[in-house]
Fold each of these.
Amino acid sequence: MFNEFGTPIGVESESMLPPGSIKPHERLIAESGVEMQWGPLAIGGAVLSVGASIIGGNTQRKNAQRAANRQYEAEQRAHQNQVAQHAYKTEFERLMLEAQNERTVDIYDKQLDQYREQIGLNAEAALESYAQEQRVLNEQWAHHAFRKQHMLRELFKIQGNQAAAGRGNDSKSLERANLINSLSDFGMEQHMLDMNLSGLQSGYRQRVNGISGQWKAADREAFSKIAIAPQLALPSVGAGPQLQGPVGPMKVASSGFGSFMGAASQGIMFGSAIHGLTESDVALKENIKHVGKSPSGINIFEYNYVGETIRHRGAMAQEVQIKFPEAVVEMENGYLGINYNKIDVTPKQLSFTK
């Protein structure tokens, strides 16, 4: 222990100091201020340490939330690409199906035209054959008629000659015999001529029937090419592809002081809701029921938020984003919110679910 001049003193010297006087070592400590500043320094360090820990945890939570949001956006893009590819494939198949059916109809229409043309050609050919056969038969009839007239004239001539030769002849028997012979010859030739004409008529009928048969066979052959109409292709049926869309980004939970910050954030969101901005992401809702449509065409739904029982009425952010993108913003937590002041839908809290 030292005195005020820095000279060491013992216990005996210290006891000789006046009563109530400050001991040298106590005065040195008081003047140094070490003991007085120790408490604030310790508290300040602890606060800094806790603050750094809180800030670090909050940063990690935000980074994790951003990563979850990016993952959700990538899943959304992949889902949209999948939907677009399926829509393109479906439309392409529909167009190809229509083109194929149009081609099938065109081919069948041409076949029908060819059938009608072939039927007309068959009729023309058959009628021409009928006419030719009739001309041949008429010529044969005319020829036979001429033969009969010639034979009749010959008979009259023979009869006249016989009558002239028999004048002055008293034998009636000879005259009758010559007449009978002449008539017999005429009858025989007439019979042969009739038999020939009958054969010609029979041949005519056979040829005409043959022409009719060929005509019908040609028509049947032409009809066989169009008898069975082609089947038009139909679109495939079934349940269709099972396209599962993303359910929303993972929500990163906070703890400790982060919970307090989350509550503060919710308070900020509540204040935003008063001014028209409300969390309205479809991923936050369940038990969704369509109940109407606004004058501008926005669908109105009733729902409750996940894990809550209070029913609400409002719109879906994803749908509003397509029609009125200026009314939709991305909230700090990664979900979509609607500024209801910019659309013709008024959000409303209804009641508790039963």
Amino acid sequence: MENNFKFYNTLTKKIETVIPHEDGKIAMYTCPTVYHFAHIGNLRSYIMEDVLEKSLRYVGYDVKRVMNITDVGHLASDADTGEDKMLKGAKREHKTVMEIAKFYTDAFFEDCKKLNIKTPDVVEPATNCIPEFIKMIEGLLEKGYAYQAGGNVYFDTSKLDNYYVFSTQAELETLVGVRDDVDEDTNKKNKTDFVLWFTKSKFEDQALKWDSPWGVGYPGWHIECSGISMKYNGEYLDLHCGGVDNAFPHHTNEIAQRQQDQVPRLYGGVQQTVGGLDGGPTQCHGVGLHVQGHQIFHAPVESLLPDHPAQEVLRRRQTRLLVAVSVDDAA
């Protein structure tokens, strides 16, 4: 089909034309974590993704959007340290992890409904795909891109030519500084290595655990998105979206997992270079919502929507437009 659809690719830092692997079709992936109520900053990313998906459909693309529900493995620091966010929520509210996941997943989609955000074609909890994660990790171990240490399985970032794929040279030292701030894991060969699978050797009170070739444990956050995307988007992913805070380390680590000899099959699509290897989806990230120089993190969607039914529909549209078109004025 004729293709004139362009937008900013976070990976290449250029405005580019979408080039799907299969003509006329777009494989799209996004993910939330459901350990608490979404705030308007979270929902801005989903408004952006909703506008993008609907725009692609409008110009004629057949879009398959897949969304995972991260109900296990997302640790508090986003960098393999701290409590699992789901476990933290369960302790806070004296509920089980699965009760927390169900309650806040329902609340998330209710907020999406209020803002006229379309439900993705596929919504899959991470806990439904443990066999897929284990299979991917086994493949990385076989190819020498992962190693076992202290009971856990880690990805070896020293195997990559360029780990910091989203960074300019000027930003590199800042990102290294971020990783210096986290608690040191002495099992890691390299500071930037990340966990693919945790076993009972860490976080003994982890609520959700599964058998694996490496012991009873649970998957790391980053392998979850890769496995679910492969299961439902197939061999090629064309468009990967999220908030700008997902670019590092989450999406950086997702790309790292695929920088091996299966890249053309696992992470193909757009004709571009990813870490020195051909193939990889367009990366689209929404920036934070700022008002008069202040970033809005924690405002719930209810604070912007009145209870009065006569005003609700209009205010939904106003809120969606305000959040979608607001310019990042923090710089």
Amino acid sequence: MIIGAVIGGIMNWAANGAEFSWQGLAYFGIGAAAGLLSAGIGGGVNVAMAGGTFGAGFAGTAAGVASTGFGAGFVTGFAAGFTGSFITGSANLWMQGSNFGEGLFNGLYSGFKSGIFGGITSVDFPTKTVHVVKPNKMNMQTKFVR
């Protein structure tokens, strides 16, 4: 989560002028909060879908518990993508003087776009075991197909 906060902070700071000022520090803080919460919520959702607790997944303390598959990958990616973009999309506009409604709308809009993208890119297609019979040798070989 710390890595997510640092990367989120640097990226948001750089995307908003990379100024060494109080405003630049505020942009860094917005990005850091978005990165930290995205990592935590993504992990929490993933562990909760596997039967663990959201809190343990959020904190990164769930040992050996993770969900996999198409649905779990999409939901986890959507939750993480939505969280980060909702925070940066709304808070950055508020920093620039927009009213509450504009910031909220922008946060929801960018959150849903990033959530869909995060969900699609996080889909895990399970590996299937396929048994192939060679006609001449009649022996079974296991081949993993993705």
Amino acid sequence: MIPTFYKEIGARLVCIKKGTKSPGVPAWTKIEDRYDCPSKKFDPNVHNKVGWILDYTPLVIDIDTHDPSKDGYAALQRLSDNLGVDLYEKATVVVKSPSGGAHLYFWKDPEVKLPKSSKEYAGLDFLSSGSQVIIAGSRHDDHSGSYVFERESEFIAPVGVAALHEALSDKQTETRVTTTVDPPEDRPGDEFNKSDRALEHVKSHMSQEGYSFKHKGDHYEFTRPGKTDTNFAISGTLGRKSKLRKFGKVVVRNKIKLDMIFQGGRRGKSYKKREKKRRREKISNQ
């Protein structure tokens, strides 16, 4: 019933009864059951779905099609155009719902909290800590068929959460909130996140975004796009077990949280104003 993908990423899981999408269990957000326990608890006579209890690091973009006046796919396209990134194509893991909707899986910076929804992008939900999402293999109560993987990968893509937060906060300024949490302990499946292959994967993505690298022993020093050897300044370090430093503060420990790299550190208001102006000009010229 439960795909091994959720075992590999160390997902916290809960069985859900037929006729409801809610776990219906007291304090379900604190459940620590992993793959083996819910696999044993699942009773097909009682349950027809399983929920993934999300922590601060995962981000699931839920594309809804239930309400004709709130087209989730159209909203996703508008958001992608605003960000300059096709979020549907960027997602390496996509689960399709029998209702026609979809769940896009990403990793994000755990210190940044996103609004769960936005009036500007009605039809989209941004699910993270405090939420649960129905996993692949589950059955739908109102539509025939199961939730299925349209796209599956052992590598969940990071999302540029700073730009996403800014895009959503442009419409909901009251949601500009950050939350600091302790780094999570290693979970099953984190071996890949600390492997040389994961390091090269992230380095390749960063290079495509314009970052430059200098090899320094067992790690790399990198600079943000636009910097050259003549004005070389270290933006951070990247290594299989190294720490990424920005402005003298350790902000990430492993590859899961490296989406912050794509933002090149925390930027000031003047930079954000220029970026917003650049995106508006780009859209108007299309």
